[in-house]
Amino acid sequence: MHRFPSIEWAEALRIALNNSRAYREAGRAWTFGSVAMIVLSDPDRGLERDAGIVLHVHRGECRSARFVEGDSDPKDAEFVIVGSYARWRAVIEGRLDPIKGMMEGKLRLTRGHLPTIIRFVEPSRLVVVSASKVPTRFTD
Questions:
Q1: Whole-angstrom distance, CA of residue 98 vs CA of residue 61
Q2: What residues have CB less than 8 Å from 70, skipping those under 6 apart?
Q3: Cα separations in angstroms, 67 against 15, 29, 40, 51, 101
Q4: What does residue 137 show for φ and ψ, rounded to 5 degrees?
């Protein structure tokens, strides 16, 4: 089990994405840069500072998945999606679609072009499918 979010969880997600033939196919057209998934600090859940994962995805491959802590705006990410721990848990567990979450204001796109993200609904869904396969230990 990997604690979410953590270095180990980020690496497990990278491996899960790269093992997904469906993601490789659906994400083939993605050439728009890295995507950061930022979890806002939540001391009640043991998250003293903002933290998250920066996925360097390109043409259906996850080239790297970097854990960040204390940074809600990683400069190397072209797209930054921010949400509470509870919202990201709902995404990982498949209870919240990230695109729908952004449209409903449950997640915020703080950097990047929303119409570009919307065009890639299927790869986004497959990132969630891959994340749901990572053995995850949540702090709550």
A1: 19
A2: 49, 50, 51
A3: 14, 25, 14, 7, 22
A4: -110, 115
Tokens of 100: 């729908």
Query: Could you give the CA distance from residue 101 to residue 140 in angstroms, rounded to a whole number?
Result: 21
pLDDT in tens, 56-68: 999 999 999 999 9
Q: How confident is the model at residue 116 (pLDDT cuts 50, 70, 90)?
A: very high
CA geometry: angle 96, 98, 103, nearest 5 deg: 100
Residue with tokens 């990230």: 98
User: Could you identify the residue written with the tokens 């209870």?
Assistant: 95
What's the pTM? 0.94
How far is the C-alpha of 99 from the C-alpha of 94, rounded, in Å?
12
SS percent in the chain: helix, strand, coil, step 5 = 40, 25, 35
In this structure, the number of other CB atoms found within 10 A of the CB of residue 22 comes to 14
